[in-house]
Design goal:
481 residues; mainly alpha; Glutamyl-tRNA Synthetase, domain 2; Arc Repressor Mutant, subunit A; three-stranded parallel beta sheet; elongated; binds glutamic acid
């Protein structure tokens, strides 16, 4: 029988989760889901100086929004808790004690200044600094006030990383790492090994910043007689340019910011899953169920994954189109223009049906619909900047608008009757749709986009349409500054 898969997401509460962190969490979750295993949330809060208030609540909100659920871990408990490292200090001490007893850990007697001198000397002599070269001969008994160090056993390692492939290092990278700091908290290096062992983690997914420490972790696994789990190192996420790591300025922002900007959680999940993973086909849109069914670590690429904002917007548009109007309406509550406050649900749903295909984010609703709720202010500058409309003289513009008023006054305002009237108007004026329809569209909406013209006019209604067309004529020669 094979061991059941157990993966974990082990964030530190040191700030807000950005796409890189959450991708590691998502992939670990997918590995567990794919094989019917268990996904665990563990909080790595041993670096008290770096802790940022509010991070835990934020972390949980992100996971919830993206549907990354966990049946074991922080706050929900489970057989190997507690799942918050600061509640596990006794456990680390017990494990440290085992190493002390086996002569594999010792108290570090040096003051930080002394260690700095060792470092400086190594730099002057142009050799890498290794603490083990200064290992004290008769260290004092460890009383908890000094750092506790690992007595390493330098050797070469070769191993397989599920993503990065076969790797190897020499003994020169092995050193006497700190296990427990002088403040009594364990280091990440030590605590995660204890926790992963106690929690029976089978696969460790993490960022590239940990790969250089991996040989030291092997050394520690050996000292405990543990079989290491499977490792998968995530590729970098690169900025749009593809040449450097994604930083704050390039969109490495808080995951919740994307949701606030009108990205659907399912689109964000789909997008994050695609950062460094594909299923080997051209398929780009994956539901959560499809991701679970198809996700495997052997399809995670080694090279950096480019963060393409346009692709995220495209995916979001695709996901918006997949929702039915009632579902879409439920997602839009926070995204309507202020002027929509008094409108009925039925009216808003009618608008959603019109603009659904044009929404890239839910936040686009404001510009795409505000003129359905209130009379827009004419802005003839928009006509002057329009390639087609700028060709018309004032006389031609006025005459076209007058014709439009005359013909629409006689029309019923159903989409079909309006289409009929607009087609007729093309014939009587001899204009191209690109000009005539753009002019009418602009004069009733003063917005760069609108849905199909007949549908737009039908929703705006006869009275308001005619009023806006008249207002357009009145304001033609008025310069609005
Ligand atoms: N606490 C580490 C981090 O937030 C977790 C690394 C790991 O998954 O082992 O980066």
């Amino acid at each position: 029988m094979t061991t059941p898969v157990r993966t974990r997401f082990a964030p530190s509460p040191t700030g807000f989760l950005h796409v890189g962190n959450i991708r590691t969490g998502l992939f670990a979750w997918l590995v567990a889901q794919h094989s019917g295993g268990t996904f665990i949330l563990r909080l790595e809060d041993t670096d008290k100086k770096r802790e940022v208030e509010g991070s835990i609540a934020h972390l949980k909100e992100c996971l919830e929004i993206l549907g990354i659920d966990y049946a074991e871990g922080l706050d929900v408990g489970g057989p190997y808790g507690p799942y918050k490292q600061s509640d596990r200090l006794e456990i680390y001490r017990t494990w440290a004690q085992k190493l002390i007893e086996n002569g594999r850990a010792y108290a570090d007697p040096y003051a930080p200044e002394q260690i700095q001198e060792f470092r400086d000397l190594a730099r002057v002599e142009k050799r890498a600094f290794l603490y083990r070269n200064h290992r004290p001969e008769n260290p004092p008994a460890w009383d908890g006030t000094m750092p506790l160090r690992f007595k390493s056993d330098p050797k070469a390692y070769s191993w397989h990383d599920e993503v990065m492939g076969d790797l190897s290092t020499g003994p020169e990278v092995i050193d006497d790492i700190i296990l427990i700091k002088s403040d009594g908290y364990p280091t990440y290096n030590f605590a995660h090994i204890v926790d992963d062992a106690e929690m029976h983690i089978t696969h460790i997914l993490r960022g590239q910043e940990f790969i250089s420490s991996q040989p030291n972790y092997f050394n520690l696994y050996e000292a405990f007689g543990l079989t290491p789990p499977i490792f998968a190192t995530m590729p970098h996420i690169l900025a749009e340019s593809g040449t450097k790591k994604l930083g704050k300025r390039d969109g490495a922002k808080d995951v919740l910011d994307y949701i606030r900007e009108g990205i659907l959680p399912e689109a964000l999940t789909n997008f994050i899953a695609s950062l460094g993973w594909n299923d080997g086909t051209e398929q780009e849109i994956f539901s959560r169920e499809e991701l679970i069914a198809k996700f495997t670590l052997d399809r995670v690429q080694r090279s950096g994954a480019r963060f393409d904002k346009q692709r995220l917007l495209w995916m979001n548009g695709q996901w918006i189109r997949r929702l039915n109007i009632d579902e879409l309406y439920d997602r839009t509550i926070n995204f309507w223009p202020v002027s929509a406050a008094k409108a009925t649900e039925a009216y808003k749903k009618q608008l959603l049906a019109l603009v659904q295909d044009r929404l890239k984010t839910l936040a686009d609703l404001k510009t795409l619909t505000s003129y359905f709720f209130e009379e827009p202010t004419p802005n003839w500058q928009m006509a002057r900047e329009n390639k087609q409309l700028s060709k018309l003289s004032s006389e031609e513009t006025r005459s076209l608008l007058q014709h439009a008023i005359a013909s629409l006054s006689d029309s019923d305002f159903t989409p079909e009757a309006l289409q009929e009237a607009l087609n007729q108007l093309l014939i009587t004026t001899g204009q191209k749709p690109g000009i005539l329809f753009s002019l009418i569209r602009l004069s009733v909406s003063w917005s760069p986009f609108s849905p199909a013209l007949n549908d737009t006019l039908a929703v705006i209604g006869k009275e308001a349409t005619l009023k806006r067309l008249n207002r357009a004529i009145e304001t033609m020669n008025v310069t609005i500054s």
